[in-house]
Amino acid sequence: MTQVDRSRSKPGHDFRKFGTGNKKTLLEDTRKQGIDLRDALLQFHKKWFRTHLQFGHAHMSLMQLKKKGVTRQVWHDHPYGPEQLGKKVEAVPIKDSKWLSIRFPFPDLDSEYKSQPRRYISHLIGDEAPGSLLSELKRRGWVSELESGYHTPASGFAFFTVSMDLSNDGLDHVDEIIELMFNYIGMLRAKRPKEWIYEELAELKAITFRFKDKESPMSLAIDVASKLQCIPFEDILSSNYLLTKYDPDRIKELLDKLTPSNMYIRVLAQKFKGQEGSIIEPIYGTEFMEKDIDKETMQKYENALKTSNPAFHLPKKNEYIATNFDLKPREITKSEHPRLIVDDS
């Protein structure tokens, strides 16, 4: 599906390229274009890399790169514009799975790691408590699982995605599911950002960081090395976890981007196989069809954004967030045998 997304993006944008490479794209196609692949690779390396770039000299080497006039590339133009939005993509998965995904173009928020406004939004849209979007969709028997999150494919642009695992019945009610999602987003807008929700989220993330499990050394090294390009060294390990700057205006600004006109829909199901008018994505052979979302349906989504739904409300305050992490003193007993502490039903 990532490759389907790439194939649908703006013509000429780097995101549209095949990001992995195979024999055809790397060898056969380059020969047809008269490109010497090895020479192109060496030129790329010469421009962007320093052979002596080591962790101990990273700052010095980056300064030398800047003196050469080399700056890190940033794609400010989003690969999804008006012509790519307002669409519905129906694709055929390999597994017999049914999945709905709604994607919104988003700005690159990686530098806003101290406030993480997108995490506030994904925390609420992905909530499972009574009054949540998932709670209502489960009650109707349409969805069994929901997740929402933010992804930055490259510096300069990102996506915010809401994904759901559909039941057979849910597959027949995709439009109603999306209307309910916009009902919920409309409620979040009307209630405006709440500092107590942000503080709860900050406390939970701080606990996660404090008691974080060890990671694979290789995974950790790759992660921190990539973050060094945009996050100060002293914040590298904590940047995903510690929320220290509440920014309600930015949260509101991002919520305002979650609109029907700024989205496209992906539905995956085996039932779309063999549809008239479907095409085959050439790299992975994914069968899919792209359709315009008709004006009537778009208007329903717009109306849902402005309509209050009594099923939805903000979560209640969490009274069970730990604040005291001291070890409880252990009672000293002198006994050679185990003793019964509790005996109940």
Automatic annotation (TrEMBL):
<comment type="similarity">
    <text>Belongs to the peptidase M16 family.</text>
</comment>
<feature type="domain" description="Peptidase M16 middle/third">
    <location>
        <begin position="209"/>
        <end position="344"/>
    </location>
</feature>
<feature type="region of interest" description="Disordered">
    <location>
        <begin position="1"/>
        <end position="20"/>
    </location>
</feature>
<keyword id="KW-0862">Zinc</keyword>
<dbReference type="Pfam" id="PF05193">
    <property type="entry name" value="Peptidase_M16_C"/>
</dbReference>
<feature type="compositionally biased region" description="Basic and acidic residues">
    <location>
        <begin position="1"/>
        <end position="17"/>
    </location>
</feature>
<keyword id="KW-0378">Hydrolase</keyword>
<dbReference type="Pfam" id="PF16187">
    <property type="entry name" value="Peptidase_M16_M"/>
</dbReference>
<keyword id="KW-0645">Protease</keyword>
<dbReference type="GO" id="GO:0004222">
    <property type="term" value="F:metalloendopeptidase activity"/>
</dbReference>
<dbReference type="GO" id="GO:0043171">
    <property type="term" value="P:peptide catabolic process"/>
</dbReference>
<feature type="domain" description="Peptidase M16 C-terminal">
    <location>
        <begin position="73"/>
        <end position="201"/>
    </location>
</feature>
<dbReference type="GO" id="GO:0005829">
    <property type="term" value="C:cytosol"/>
</dbReference>
<keyword id="KW-0479">Metal-binding</keyword>
<dbReference type="InterPro" id="IPR050626">
    <property type="entry name" value="Peptidase_M16"/>
</dbReference>
<dbReference type="GO" id="GO:0051603">
    <property type="term" value="P:proteolysis involved in protein catabolic process"/>
</dbReference>
<dbReference type="GO" id="GO:0046872">
    <property type="term" value="F:metal ion binding"/>
</dbReference>
<dbReference type="GO" id="GO:0005739">
    <property type="term" value="C:mitochondrion"/>
</dbReference>
<dbReference type="InterPro" id="IPR011249">
    <property type="entry name" value="Metalloenz_LuxS/M16"/>
</dbReference>
<protein>
    <recommendedName>
        <fullName>Peptidase M16 C-terminal domain-containing protein</fullName>
    </recommendedName>
</protein>
<keyword id="KW-0482">Metalloprotease</keyword>
<dbReference type="InterPro" id="IPR007863">
    <property type="entry name" value="Peptidase_M16_C"/>
</dbReference>
<dbReference type="InterPro" id="IPR032632">
    <property type="entry name" value="Peptidase_M16_M"/>
</dbReference>
